[in-house]
Amino acid sequence: MYYKGVYHFFYQHNPYGPLWGNMSWGHAISHDLINWVHLDIALVPNEHYDINGCFSGSTTILPNGEPAILYTGVDAKLHQVQNLAFPKNISDPLLKEWVKWPLNPILSPPDEIDPSFYRDPSTGWMGADGEWRVVIGTRIDHQVAAILYKSKDFRSWNRSLSPFPLSNITTFWECPELYPVICNGKSGLDTSVISVQGKDIKHVLKASFNDHDYYILGKYDPESDRYDVDADFMKSKEWLRYDYGRFYASKSFYDGEKKRRILWSWVCESDTPPDAIEKGWSGLQTIPRSIWLSKNEDQLVQWPVKELEKLRTRKVHFKNKRLKGRSMIEISGITASQADVEITFRVSNLKHAEVLSAEVVDPQILCTQKNATTNGKFGPFGLLVLASKDLTEHTAVFFRVFRIANSFRVLMCADPSRSSLKPFIDKPIYGAFLALDPRYAKISLRTLIDHSIVESFGGEGLACITSRVYPVLAVGEQAHLYAFNNGTQSLSISSLSAWSMKKAQIV
Q1: Using one digit for the tens of pLDDT, what is the confidence trace for 207-224?
Q2: How far apart are CA 130 and CA 152, in angstroms?
Q3: pTM exceeds 0.90 for this model
Q4: Residue 36 forms beta bridges with which residues?
């Protein structure tokens, strides 16, 4: 959240080691979302209602300007209950100390709900009737749901009888969110905004399940608290994803200072628990992303926050370079292990594109079948990052162009299958389709490289893929960066800009 000129980041944290356990709320602050200072732990499990863990939750700024934390505690019976905490001193912009509400828990699971599946309250929003709302993830009669609660004072809550979406295609919703996005604009909206003069609004319902973060777009009626989705809510293929890689339990917040909505997410490890113990830490956060509704109003767009560019140093740039089939060029002159790369490709003569089988609809399966070493016509082409000189190790982020009848589809893939010689590493290949027509739009890629994490944004943020990688050869100055084309058809690099990146200050 943003409070009195300071960004606050609260996160799930084990103070005693890098593995899961002793769940507490860590706390860090920043003035620019890039450089951070760790403060003392905000919440520790020391009360009967959270003695087995202070699980996830959200912050909300109340009308008097006071921040509130609403979080899930696991009590002595291992039941999940909801609790409040407030700053000890609201005049302190750093919010160094938090005090738990003496009447906790404020919500306990209803009789029909499994007390082990009742967690992760959302940021609150205020309706036209002056009452607060939050949603909590749960499971009812073998269906998962987000239960809606209402309150006049943010302290005493009642369950709403208004219908909210249910789903029988998922296991359980974690970290649900409901927030508005403006149509035809990039500005963010406060969570409580229900209308903007001269603009239409849609609402995003997000939930974390099946190891990914999914969302769906719809219309929220603030009077009835009804949420009507744009697509069939019960069909899994109608759910969109924030990120098609390793990205889970994300949270967004409204940055009132810069009028934008910021999204970031936990990225878990792909190596083993002994590896985490050896390095002394586990898990990290993505670079914060600005998020808005696409021009077609049918999906969200994400882009790294502008502040990240302050870390850019040495730059390499060129335009209009031909990249023949089955060739590559090294992008030298920057630090390839810590870089920001933007590249745009132009393809022509698409009548020669491969035909995509109608049976193949899952982009991850398609990327796995046609990985970075499988030659096609238009593709694979893209970047080889964190690559050793002889390419024994490398992570490929690439595109393929397919023809379906009289139209075309652009597939984006991240292939870390050759990212490391280290054993026992999970190296799944990820994929997503880009909602663009390569006949009229250039195919662009921005990739952020930071030693063991690769965040990629295709089509100016239409699809995002995050990977964790653990090279043992392609580290530090031994890491290389290449643009490649393993397809048989030549193409052009319209533009490439790459920067070495300074290290963020984290203390």
Answers
A1: 999 899 999 999 999 888
A2: 7
A3: yes
A4: 506
